[in-house]
Design a protein that fits this description.
362 residues; alpha/beta; 7-stranded parallel sheet; 3-stranded mixed sheet; binds nicotinamide-adenine-dinucleotide; binds thymidine-5'-diphosphate
C-alpha cells in the first residue's frame, strides 16, 4: 500500500516516517514537503539509506492544487497522513498569512484531491482509504485548572496558528459528513524529542543552556503544557490509522502536565550533571523572564480516555526519561543544530528575542 505523508521532513513527520517504515513492512511512503525553514532532509538521511525502494521524496507545496491533483492522478494513494503545516505560534503572531495559506488552503487542496480521485461512493474501496489529519490540543484554547478538553469540547483557539488548525479541522470533518471522506482527526499535546526545530521551547532551552546563553521564559513561566514524547505520538497515530473509527476525533496526550519554568529547570539541572558548570554557576541562573506572548494560553490539558479505552493506546515514555533521551540526542547531534543556526533562523531569533532579552529584569 502507498502512504502519502505531507510535511514528512519536519519534526513529527520525519519521526513518523521512520516508525511507519519499521513497523509496517507492506507500505511504500511518498513524502511531499515544501522544505520551508522547518523542513530538513537531514532528518531523513538514515531513512533514505535504509529504505531505498520503499521511500521517495517530492519537493512540493500542498497549497499548489495542480501539484497535489497531479500526485493523486499519477499514484494510487491509500492513506494520507497530513502533517504539513506552519506550526509555530510565535511565528503566526509575527506573520499569520502563510498559516492561512498552508494550514487552511493546503488542507483543503488535499481533501479536494481525495474527493476527486478516491471513489467515495464505493464502500469497499473507502474501507481501504484513510485521511489522517494531524491536529493539536491548541484548538480547544486555554483550559481552566482541573478541567480537561475532551473530543467534544468547544473550539476556542487563541493564536493565528491554532485558529488556522481549527479551521482545517472543521473542513476535514465537514468533508466526512458531506462527501463521506474517510477521515480521522487527532489532537495531540506538545511533542518533544529528536529532530525538533530549535525555535520550540525544549530544544531552544537545551541549546541555549548548553552554550551558556540566556534562557527566555515568557511571562511568569507558570503556563502549563502537557508533554508527549514524539515516539509515543507516532505509536498513537499508528493505532488510530489501524483501528480508529472514521469521522471520529482522538485526543493524544502524554498525561504529563508541567509548568514551563519547571521544564526549564529540569533541563538546566540535567545539563549541569552532564556538562561542566558554567563559570562554576548552575545553569538556572541563565533564566530570564521576558515579555509574555500575546494571547498566551495558560494551560492545555487533554482527557485521553477515548483513545485509551477504544484503541488501547497509552504513552510509554515518562517525562524525565524522554527529556534525558532528548537532551542526549541534541548533545550528540550538535552539528544538526549548528547547520540550522547557520541558516535564516538567527534572523528570526533576533526579531523574536532581541528586544525582549534586552529588557528582561533579571
Ligand atoms: P514542523 O514545523 O517541524 O514541520 C512542518 C513540515 O511541514 C516542515 O517539514 C515543512 O517544510 C512542511 N511544510 C510547511 N508548509 C508546507 C507546504 N505549504 N507544503 C508542504 N510542506 C510544507 O511541524 P511539526 O512539529 O512536525 O508538526 C507537524 C504537525 O503536527 C503539524 O500539523 C502541527 O500542527 C501538528 N502538531 C504539532 C505539535 C508539536 O508539538 N510539534 C503538537 C500537536 C500537533
Ligand atoms: P512552544 O514550544 O512554542 O509550544 P506552544 O506554544 O505551541 O505550546 O512553547 C511552549 C511553552 O513555552 C509556551 O507556553 C510558550 C513557552 N515559551 C517560552 O516561555 N519561551 C520560549 O522561548 C518559547 C519558544 C516558548
Amino acid at each position: 500500500m502507498r502512504v502519502l505523508i505531507t510535511g514528512g521532513a519536519g519534526f513529527i513527520g520525519s519521526n513518523f516516517i521512520r516508525h511507519l517504515l519499521h513497523v509496517k513492512k507492506d507500505v511504500e511512503v511518498l513524502n511531499v514537503d515544501l522544505l520551508t525553514y522547518a523542513g530538513n532532509l537531514a532528518n531523513l538521511a538514515d531513512v533514505e539509506k535504509t529504505f531505498t525502494g520503499r521511500y521517495s521524496f517530492i519537493k512540493g507545496d500542498i497549497a499548489d492544487r495542480k501539484l497535489i491533483f497531479h500526485l493523486f492522478e499519477t499514484s494510487e494513494i491509500d492513506w494520507v497522513v497530513h502533517f504539513a503545516a506552519e506550526s509555530h505560534v510565535d511565528r503566526s503572531i509575527l506573520g499569520p498569512q502563510t498559516f492561512v495559506r498552508t494550514n487552511i488552503l493546503g488542507t483543503f487542496n488535499l481533501i479536494e484531491a481525495c474527493r476527486r480521485f478516491w471513489p467515495l461512493e464505493d464502500m469497499s474501496c473507502v474501507g481501504k482509504k484513510r485521511f489522517l489529519h494531524v491536529s493539536t490540543d491548541e484548538v480547544y484554547g486555554s483550559v481552566a485548572e482541573s478541567m480537561y478538553s475532551t473530543e467534544t469540547s468547544p473550539y476556542d483557539p487563541s493564536s493565528p496558528y491554532s485558529a488556522s488548525k481549527a479551521s482545517s479541522d472543521h473542513m476535514v470533518k465537514a468533508f466526512h459528513r458531506t462527501y463521506g471522506l474517510p477521515a480521522i482527526v487527532t489532537h495531540s499535546s506538545n511533542n518533544y524529542g529528536p529532530f525538533q526545530f530549535p525555535e520550540k521551547l525544549i530544544p531552544l532551552i537545551i541549546f541555549n543552556a548548553a552554550k551558556g546563553r540566556d534562557l527566555p521564559v515568557y511571562g511568569d513561566g507558570k503556563n502549563i503544557r502537557d508533554w508527549i514524547y514524539v515516539e509515543d505520538h507516532c505509536k498513537a497515530l499508528m493505532a488510530v490509522l489501524r483501528k480508529g473509527n472514521l469521522g471520529e476525533s482522538y485526543n493524544i496526550g502524554g498525561q504529563c502536565e508541567i509548568q514551563n519554568i519547571d521544564v526549564v529547570h529540569l533541563i538546566c539541572d540535567y545539563l549541569d550533571e552532564r556538562l561542566v558548570l558554567l563559570g562554576g554557576r548552575p545553569r538556572r541562573n541563565l533564566v530570564r523572564f521576558v515579555t509574555d506572548r500575546p494571547g498566551h494560553d495558560r494551560r492545555y490539558a487533554l482527557d485521553t480516555s477515548k483513545i485509551n479505552e477504544e484503541l488501547g493506546w497509552r504513552p510509554g515514555v515518562g517525562f524525565e526519561e524522554g527529556l534525558a533521551r532528548t537532551i542526549d540526542w541534541y548533545l550528540k547531534n550538535i552539528k544538526w543544530v549548528k547547520n540550522i543556526l547557520n541558516g535564516t533562523y538567527m534572523e528570526y531569533y533576533r526579531r523574536q528575542y532581541g528586544k525582549r532579552l534586552h529588557e528582561s529584569k533579571l
